[in-house]
Amino acid sequence: MTHSPQPSDPAAPQAPVVVPPPPPARTRFFPAVALLGTALIIALFAALGTSGGDDRDGGTAAPAPAEDTAGEGESRSEGGEAPEEEDERPDLARRTAGDPFAIGAVDAPVVMIEYADFRCGYCGQFARETKPELIRSYVEDGLLRIEWRHTPVLGEESVALAVASHAAAEQDRFWEFHDAVYGGHATATDTESLVALARQAGVVDLDRFRADLDSREIQRAVLQDVQEALTAGFGSTPSFLVNGRMVIGAQPIGWFEAIIDDELRKSGHA
Protein backbone atom coordinates (compact mmCIF):
# COMPACT_ATOMS: atom_id res chain seq x y z
CA MET A 1 0.00 0.00 0.00
CA THR A 2 1.40 3.36 -0.97
CA HIS A 3 0.53 6.91 -0.02
CA SER A 4 0.85 9.85 -2.36
CA PRO A 5 0.00 13.55 -2.08
CA GLN A 6 -3.29 15.01 -3.28
CA PRO A 7 -3.31 16.66 -6.74
CA SER A 8 -2.13 20.25 -6.47
CA ASP A 9 -4.98 22.05 -8.25
CA PRO A 10 -7.64 19.56 -9.40
CA ALA A 11 -10.07 22.27 -10.41
CA ALA A 12 -7.91 23.60 -13.22
CA PRO A 13 -5.83 21.00 -15.04
CA GLN A 14 -3.66 22.19 -17.89
CA ALA A 15 -3.38 18.84 -19.66
CA PRO A 16 -5.55 15.76 -20.16
CA VAL A 17 -6.08 14.24 -16.74
CA VAL A 18 -5.73 10.61 -15.83
CA VAL A 19 -5.00 8.93 -12.54
CA PRO A 20 -1.66 7.13 -12.85
CA PRO A 21 -0.82 3.81 -11.21
CA PRO A 22 -0.58 2.76 -8.45
CA PRO A 23 -4.32 3.53 -8.08
CA PRO A 24 -5.80 4.12 -4.61
CA ALA A 25 -9.20 3.14 -3.26
CA ARG A 26 -9.89 0.22 -5.51
CA THR A 27 -10.63 -3.49 -5.45
CA ARG A 28 -8.11 -5.36 -7.56
CA PHE A 29 -8.92 -8.24 -9.85
CA PHE A 30 -7.36 -11.14 -7.92
CA PRO A 31 -4.78 -12.62 -8.18
CA ALA A 32 -3.60 -11.11 -11.49
CA VAL A 33 -5.14 -9.67 -14.62
CA ALA A 34 -3.29 -12.20 -16.77
CA LEU A 35 -5.09 -15.06 -15.02
CA LEU A 36 -8.58 -13.62 -15.11
CA GLY A 37 -10.05 -14.83 -18.38
CA THR A 38 -11.11 -18.40 -17.78
CA ALA A 39 -11.77 -17.90 -14.08
CA LEU A 40 -14.62 -15.41 -14.29
CA ILE A 41 -16.26 -17.23 -17.16
CA ILE A 42 -16.20 -20.37 -14.99
CA ALA A 43 -17.59 -18.38 -12.07
CA LEU A 44 -20.32 -16.88 -14.24
CA PHE A 45 -21.41 -20.17 -15.70
CA ALA A 46 -21.06 -22.06 -12.42
CA ALA A 47 -22.99 -19.48 -10.43
CA LEU A 48 -25.73 -19.05 -13.00
CA GLY A 49 -26.08 -22.62 -14.22
CA THR A 50 -25.21 -21.96 -17.86
CA SER A 51 -23.26 -24.29 -20.10
CA GLY A 52 -20.04 -23.55 -21.99
CA GLY A 53 -19.46 -22.47 -25.54
CA ASP A 54 -18.47 -18.86 -24.95
CA ASP A 55 -14.75 -18.19 -25.26
CA ARG A 56 -14.81 -14.56 -24.19
CA ASP A 57 -12.52 -13.59 -21.34
CA GLY A 58 -13.50 -12.38 -17.89
CA GLY A 59 -12.02 -12.33 -14.38
CA THR A 60 -12.60 -13.20 -10.76
CA ALA A 61 -11.42 -12.10 -7.39
CA ALA A 62 -11.65 -13.42 -3.87
CA PRO A 63 -14.92 -12.32 -2.18
CA ALA A 64 -14.64 -9.13 -0.15
CA PRO A 65 -17.10 -7.27 2.06
CA ALA A 66 -18.91 -4.17 0.87
CA GLU A 67 -17.66 -2.12 3.83
CA ASP A 68 -14.94 0.43 3.12
CA THR A 69 -12.13 -1.65 4.61
CA ALA A 70 -9.19 -2.97 2.66
CA GLY A 71 -8.80 -6.73 2.67
CA GLU A 72 -7.37 -9.50 0.53
CA GLY A 73 -7.43 -8.47 -3.11
CA GLU A 74 -8.02 -4.82 -2.27
CA SER A 75 -5.74 -1.79 -2.27
CA ARG A 76 -6.29 1.60 -0.76
CA SER A 77 -4.29 4.73 -0.08
CA GLU A 78 -5.12 8.36 0.53
CA GLY A 79 -5.19 10.66 -2.48
CA GLY A 80 -2.91 10.12 -5.45
CA GLU A 81 -0.17 11.62 -7.56
CA ALA A 82 -0.71 14.63 -9.76
CA PRO A 83 -2.70 13.87 -12.92
CA GLU A 84 -0.66 12.85 -15.93
CA GLU A 85 -1.35 12.59 -19.64
CA GLU A 86 -2.12 9.13 -21.06
CA ASP A 87 -3.39 7.69 -24.31
CA GLU A 88 -7.16 7.68 -24.51
CA ARG A 89 -9.13 4.45 -24.76
CA PRO A 90 -11.60 3.71 -27.57
CA ASP A 91 -14.96 5.42 -27.32
CA LEU A 92 -17.10 2.79 -25.56
CA ALA A 93 -20.01 5.08 -24.70
CA ARG A 94 -23.30 3.59 -25.88
CA ARG A 95 -25.51 6.70 -25.72
CA THR A 96 -28.60 4.51 -26.08
CA ALA A 97 -31.90 6.33 -25.62
CA GLY A 98 -33.89 4.82 -22.78
CA ASP A 99 -30.91 2.86 -21.43
CA PRO A 100 -31.93 1.77 -17.90
CA PHE A 101 -28.25 1.65 -16.90
CA ALA A 102 -27.58 5.30 -17.73
CA ILE A 103 -28.27 8.64 -16.07
CA GLY A 104 -28.18 11.87 -18.03
CA ALA A 105 -28.84 13.24 -21.48
CA VAL A 106 -27.98 11.04 -24.45
CA ASP A 107 -26.23 14.00 -26.09
CA ALA A 108 -24.33 15.17 -22.98
CA PRO A 109 -20.86 16.46 -23.94
CA VAL A 110 -19.19 14.20 -21.38
CA VAL A 111 -19.89 10.50 -20.82
CA MET A 112 -18.46 8.69 -17.82
CA ILE A 113 -18.58 4.89 -17.99
CA GLU A 114 -18.50 3.26 -14.56
CA TYR A 115 -17.15 -0.30 -14.23
CA ALA A 116 -18.16 -1.55 -10.80
CA ASP A 117 -18.93 -4.54 -8.59
CA PHE A 118 -21.80 -4.44 -6.11
CA ARG A 119 -19.64 -6.14 -3.45
CA CYS A 120 -16.67 -3.81 -3.89
CA GLY A 121 -16.42 -1.50 -0.89
CA TYR A 122 -14.76 1.28 -2.84
CA CYS A 123 -17.45 1.09 -5.51
CA GLY A 124 -19.95 1.62 -2.70
CA GLN A 125 -17.95 4.57 -1.44
CA PHE A 126 -18.10 6.19 -4.88
CA ALA A 127 -21.82 5.44 -5.19
CA ARG A 128 -22.67 6.99 -1.82
CA GLU A 129 -20.25 9.91 -1.62
CA THR A 130 -19.16 11.02 -5.07
CA LYS A 131 -21.76 10.04 -7.64
CA PRO A 132 -24.61 12.04 -6.02
CA GLU A 133 -22.44 15.18 -6.16
CA LEU A 134 -21.60 14.60 -9.82
CA ILE A 135 -25.28 14.11 -10.58
CA ARG A 136 -26.19 17.39 -8.89
CA SER A 137 -23.32 19.36 -10.42
CA TYR A 138 -23.24 17.98 -13.95
CA VAL A 139 -25.90 15.40 -14.83
CA GLU A 140 -28.85 17.57 -13.86
CA ASP A 141 -27.48 20.37 -16.06
CA GLY A 142 -27.19 18.10 -19.09
CA LEU A 143 -23.39 18.17 -19.06
CA LEU A 144 -22.63 14.61 -17.97
CA ARG A 145 -24.03 11.18 -18.70
CA ILE A 146 -23.10 8.21 -16.48
CA GLU A 147 -23.30 4.71 -17.94
CA TRP A 148 -22.99 1.61 -15.75
CA ARG A 149 -21.16 -1.57 -16.72
CA HIS A 150 -21.45 -4.79 -14.72
CA THR A 151 -17.99 -5.86 -13.54
CA PRO A 152 -18.59 -8.65 -10.99
CA VAL A 153 -15.00 -9.58 -10.13
CA LEU A 154 -15.48 -10.73 -6.53
CA GLY A 155 -16.94 -14.16 -7.14
CA GLU A 156 -20.32 -15.84 -7.43
CA GLU A 157 -22.08 -13.47 -5.02
CA SER A 158 -21.06 -10.52 -7.18
CA VAL A 159 -22.37 -12.31 -10.25
CA ALA A 160 -25.69 -12.94 -8.50
CA LEU A 161 -26.06 -9.25 -7.64
CA ALA A 162 -25.14 -8.17 -11.16
CA VAL A 163 -27.76 -10.47 -12.67
CA ALA A 164 -30.36 -9.36 -10.11
CA SER A 165 -29.69 -5.69 -10.82
CA HIS A 166 -30.13 -6.39 -14.52
CA ALA A 167 -33.40 -8.18 -13.76
CA ALA A 168 -34.51 -5.06 -11.87
CA ALA A 169 -33.49 -2.97 -14.88
CA GLU A 170 -35.88 -5.00 -17.02
CA GLN A 171 -38.59 -3.25 -14.99
CA ASP A 172 -36.86 0.16 -14.98
CA ARG A 173 -35.64 -0.14 -11.41
CA PHE A 174 -31.89 -0.55 -11.86
CA TRP A 175 -30.82 2.61 -10.04
CA GLU A 176 -33.22 1.97 -7.18
CA PHE A 177 -31.75 -1.53 -6.86
CA HIS A 178 -28.25 -0.04 -7.12
CA ASP A 179 -28.99 2.34 -4.24
CA ALA A 180 -30.48 -0.43 -2.11
CA VAL A 181 -27.43 -2.66 -2.54
CA TYR A 182 -24.90 0.07 -1.86
CA GLY A 183 -27.06 1.22 1.03
CA GLY A 184 -25.97 -1.85 2.98
CA HIS A 185 -27.33 -4.99 1.34
CA ALA A 186 -24.34 -6.27 -0.64
CA THR A 187 -24.53 -9.60 1.22
CA ALA A 188 -28.06 -10.31 -0.04
CA THR A 189 -27.26 -12.88 -2.71
CA ASP A 190 -29.70 -15.76 -2.15
CA THR A 191 -32.93 -15.72 -4.13
CA GLU A 192 -35.24 -14.61 -1.35
CA SER A 193 -32.90 -11.82 -0.28
CA LEU A 194 -32.63 -10.64 -3.86
CA VAL A 195 -36.41 -10.65 -4.20
CA ALA A 196 -36.65 -8.63 -0.99
CA LEU A 197 -34.19 -6.13 -2.43
CA ALA A 198 -36.21 -5.96 -5.63
CA ARG A 199 -39.34 -5.26 -3.61
CA GLN A 200 -37.49 -2.49 -1.75
CA ALA A 201 -36.37 -1.06 -5.11
CA GLY A 202 -39.96 -0.88 -6.34
CA VAL A 203 -39.88 -3.82 -8.74
CA VAL A 204 -43.56 -4.55 -9.38
CA ASP A 205 -43.63 -7.97 -11.03
CA LEU A 206 -41.65 -10.13 -8.62
CA ASP A 207 -42.54 -13.35 -10.43
CA ARG A 208 -40.96 -11.94 -13.58
CA PHE A 209 -37.97 -10.82 -11.51
CA ARG A 210 -37.51 -14.37 -10.16
CA ALA A 211 -37.67 -15.78 -13.66
CA ASP A 212 -35.17 -13.22 -14.94
CA LEU A 213 -32.63 -14.38 -12.36
CA ASP A 214 -32.19 -17.43 -14.62
CA SER A 215 -32.32 -15.52 -17.91
CA ARG A 216 -29.60 -16.56 -20.37
CA GLU A 217 -29.98 -13.22 -22.13
CA ILE A 218 -29.22 -11.34 -18.92
CA GLN A 219 -26.28 -13.61 -18.17
CA ARG A 220 -24.84 -12.90 -21.61
CA ALA A 221 -25.31 -9.15 -21.09
CA VAL A 222 -23.36 -9.30 -17.82
CA LEU A 223 -20.58 -11.26 -19.50
CA GLN A 224 -20.48 -8.73 -22.34
CA ASP A 225 -19.88 -5.92 -19.83
CA VAL A 226 -17.06 -7.89 -18.21
CA GLN A 227 -15.47 -8.44 -21.60
CA GLU A 228 -15.67 -4.71 -22.30
CA ALA A 229 -13.92 -3.91 -19.01
CA LEU A 230 -11.08 -6.26 -19.86
CA THR A 231 -10.85 -4.95 -23.41
CA ALA A 232 -10.55 -1.43 -21.99
CA GLY A 233 -7.58 -2.62 -19.95
CA PHE A 234 -9.01 -2.42 -16.46
CA GLY A 235 -7.63 -4.56 -13.64
CA SER A 236 -9.63 -3.28 -10.67
CA THR A 237 -12.95 -1.81 -9.57
CA PRO A 238 -14.17 0.84 -9.59
CA SER A 239 -12.72 2.02 -12.87
CA PHE A 240 -13.98 4.75 -15.16
CA LEU A 241 -13.69 6.10 -18.67
CA VAL A 242 -14.47 9.81 -18.94
CA ASN A 243 -14.71 10.61 -22.64
CA GLY A 244 -12.19 7.83 -23.13
CA ARG A 245 -9.85 8.93 -20.33
CA MET A 246 -9.10 6.39 -17.65
CA VAL A 247 -9.57 6.92 -13.92
CA ILE A 248 -8.79 4.10 -11.49
CA GLY A 249 -10.29 3.94 -8.01
CA ALA A 250 -12.75 5.86 -5.84
CA GLN A 251 -10.80 9.10 -6.20
CA PRO A 252 -11.76 12.30 -4.37
CA ILE A 253 -14.44 14.25 -6.16
CA GLY A 254 -11.93 16.90 -7.21
CA TRP A 255 -10.22 14.43 -9.52
CA PHE A 256 -13.46 13.71 -11.34
CA GLU A 257 -14.38 17.39 -11.47
CA ALA A 258 -10.97 18.21 -12.97
CA ILE A 259 -11.39 15.72 -15.79
CA ILE A 260 -15.03 16.60 -16.47
CA ASP A 261 -14.32 20.34 -16.47
CA ASP A 262 -11.38 19.82 -18.83
CA GLU A 263 -13.57 17.82 -21.20
CA LEU A 264 -16.26 20.50 -21.04
CA ARG A 265 -13.69 23.15 -21.96
CA LYS A 266 -12.50 21.08 -24.90
CA SER A 267 -16.07 20.74 -26.17
CA GLY A 268 -16.85 24.43 -25.69
CA HIS A 269 -19.25 23.94 -22.78
CA ALA A 270 -17.15 25.52 -20.03
TrEMBL record:
Record bears the keyword Ribonucleoprotein: no
Transmembrane parts of this sequence: 29-48
Keyword match Oxidoreductase: yes
Xref: Pfam families: Thioredoxin_4 (PF13462)
Region (Disordered) location: 1-24, 52-96
Domain Thioredoxin: 56-228
GO terms, molecular function: oxidoreductase activity
PROSITE patterns named among the record's database cross-references: THIOREDOXIN_2
Alphabetized InterPro entries for the sequence: Thioredoxin-like_fold, Thioredoxin-like_sf, Thioredoxin_domain
Alphabetical UniProt keywords: Disulfide bond, Membrane, Oxidoreductase, Redox-active center, Signal, Transmembrane, Transmembrane helix
Biased composition range(s): Low complexity: 1-17
Name of the protein described by the UniProt record: Thioredoxin
Organism per entry: Streptomyces aidingensis
Lineage, opening ranks: Bacteria, Bacillati, Actinomycetota, Actinomycetes, Kitasatosporales
